[in-house]
Design goal:
Strand order of the largest sheet: 1-2-3-4-5-6-7-8
Number of helices: 13
Structural class: alpha/beta
Number of strands: 8
Radius of gyration: 21 Å
Distance between the termini: 65 Å
Order of helices and strands: HHHHEEEHHEHEHHEHHHEHE
């Protein structure tokens, strides 16, 4: 029986390793990167996030030296590991900074990133899980900016920009990591630095309005929500004690930033971005853009908490502009719809650029 259990454990570990091995599941066909090609850019960004996941798994499984699986995920695209980002709370690897060492002779070289700063999402196994879960709760509470992990991430971004400049520096992340990259990107925009960002399955926690099949009911609920949110925001706008609202000028500065968001309609963690931007466009088309412009700067929950004397931070997930890419290929389950692997594979993708004030 012990021998049988040992065989099962080894078999499970082998399957897990294959999923982390670039030679088994990475985009091996991408032997030469055209940095002007959006598909290539997306694939490389996703692989560099995957490298952070695998780095943490290497640490947990004590795979080092030639046994480590992570390096192939960045070396395949001519990157070096510039710095690991370690969470001081549990010593786990949550991010990495990569430096591009060489480029091919393709025409898109001027678009190649000099540095890529990548953040992984939640790992559901091993000793990193509880810390990751704690960070997920902070996202739900809109308190990610108060965590030590985000502070380390923000310091790392500022270090790269201050040392090497903001030109050709990418931010990328998946799930929890996408939330960190988005918040870091927003902070840098407010400092006058616009960084390219590739955000895979970024969290947008809200009621699942997009799952309502009746289109009129769905639109009606969104319209009513916008009117109520805008009305409450307007009523509180001149109150000195109102601190939850993002100043209109501050939110407007984000307009010039155009992060790339990658979502799947079957992933309830991020799918509301689809309805959010479609609704913004519909409100503009109806001549109600002013209402939606005000509503989109706030969350209704934040406004209500502020009305009760409990100031909250600017909503993490709200941004005025984005290039939204949707994977329309049906997913077998939530795990597949939320997975990072889909973003370097061939799928039916639709991309739309949304720019709002």
């Amino acid at each position: 029986m012990e021998v049988q259990n040992e065989i099962i454990q080894h078999s499970t570990a082998a399957v897990a390793s294959e999923k982390e091995d670039f030679n088994f599941c990475g985009p091996r066909h991408l032997t030469e990167v055209d940095w002007a090609n959006p598909t290539h850019r997306r694939s490389v960004a996703a692989c560099l996030v995957q490298a952070v996941y695998v780095m943490e798994r290497d640490r947990q499984d004590k795979r080092d030296g030639i046994r480590a699986l992570a390096p192939q995920w960045w070396k395949s695209f001519h990157f070096d590991l510039y710095m690991k980002l370690i969470d001081e709370a549990d010593s786990c690897t949550f991010g990495a900074i990569y430096q591009l060492t060489s480029v091919s002779s393709s025409s898109g070289n001027h678009l190649a990133p000099r540095f890529v700063i990548a953040f992984r999402g939640t790992i559901t196994k091993g000793d990193a899980f509880y810390r990751d879960l704690e960070l997920d709760v902070h996202i739900l509470k809109n308190g990610l900016h108060e965590t030590s992990r985000f502070e380390i991430a923000m310091q790392s971004v500022r270090h790269v920009v201050a040392t090497y400049g903001g030109s050709n520096v990418w931010l990328t992340g998946h799930s929890l990591g996408a939330a960190m990259a988005m918040l870091a990107g927003k902070n840098m925009v407010k400092s006058g630095v616009l960084l390219d960002a590739f955000l895979f399955n970024p969290p947008f926690f809200s009621p699942p309005i997009g799952r309502i099949k009746d289109e009129k009911v769905r639109h009606g609920i969104r319209f009513a929500g916008s009117v109520i949110t805008a009305g409450l925001a307007l009523a509180m706008k001149n109150k000195a004690q109102s601190q939850s609202s993002c100043p209109e000028g501050s939110f407007t500065t984000l307009t010039e930033w155009l992060p790339d968001l990658f979502v799947h309609p079957n992933d309830h963690i991020c799918s509301e971005y689809i309805g959010h931007f479609e609704h913004r466009k519909r409100m503009e088309d109806l001549g109600a853009g002013g209402i939606e412009r005000l509503a989109s700067q706030h969350s209704l929950g934040g406004l209500l908490l502020n009305a009760l004397g409990k100031p909250v931070a600017e909503p993490l997930h709200l941004i005025p502009s984005a290039r939204l890419t949707v994977n329309r290929t049906p997913a077998r389950d939530l795990k597949e719809a939320h997975g990072i692997r889909q973003w370097w594979s061939d799928h039916h993708l639709d991309s739309t650029t949304y720019r709002f004030r």
